[in-house]
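Homework help board

Subject: predicted structure for assignment chain

Our instructor gave us this sequence and asked us to write out the predicted structure in token form, then describe one feature. I got the tokens but I'm not sure how to describe them. Can anyone check?
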Amino acid sequence: MNLEATFEKYDPKTGEVIANYKNFTADEVFAVVDAAVATSERWQEFGFTARKATLLKWAAYITKNLDEIAQLVESECGKPIGDAKLEVSVAIDHIAWAAKNAEQIMRKQDRPSGLLMFNMKAEVQRSPLGVVGVIGPWNYPIFTPMGSIAYALAAGNTVVFKPSEFTPGVGKWLADSFAQIAPFENILSTVTGLPETGKALTQSKVNKISFTGSTKDCQKGC
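My token output:
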């Protein structure tokens, strides 16, 4: 485990240090996940209508501050600002779609029981898992992980997000922005750090991991 308390984020265009971010240790990651576990039942009981309202508020907040987060994506990834704004816009669509459709998708559904069990009834029931850990990539640091974050939250899961060590600021911004509209704490948390931090997330008490990256990334600790 890397015991350094912080790590440096470099500008991909100039190589200069632009910020320092906390390098979460395994114990610190476990503590964040434990807090998310303690909150998960409360978030589930919050209900679809209240979660929908919360997520739409988040989408509105990001929309209002689109230039700010797009500038951060641009500075951390080195991509053109127009591409960064497009990425943020699509991420906002993820949130809105999840908020508006989660209840219908999670609703109990009847299924044909088949000829062998024609006198029986079959149904599919979907329930939130608890805590979802999300490990995101550097090249689309908001669009790609939001596909997991928004849908997990809308379904009633709490989320702990570990962004790439190349885009830690974007990950921190997402958690900070959600905190602006969240009804209570520990619904969405971000843990920044080097690959060992991602490895710790996979070893924590999360109920599911959503990982985007290469085989090499996973082998070195996600």
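Reply (TA_rk): Your tokens look well-formed. For the description, you could write something like this. The chain has a mean pLDDT of 92. That's the kind of observation they're looking for.
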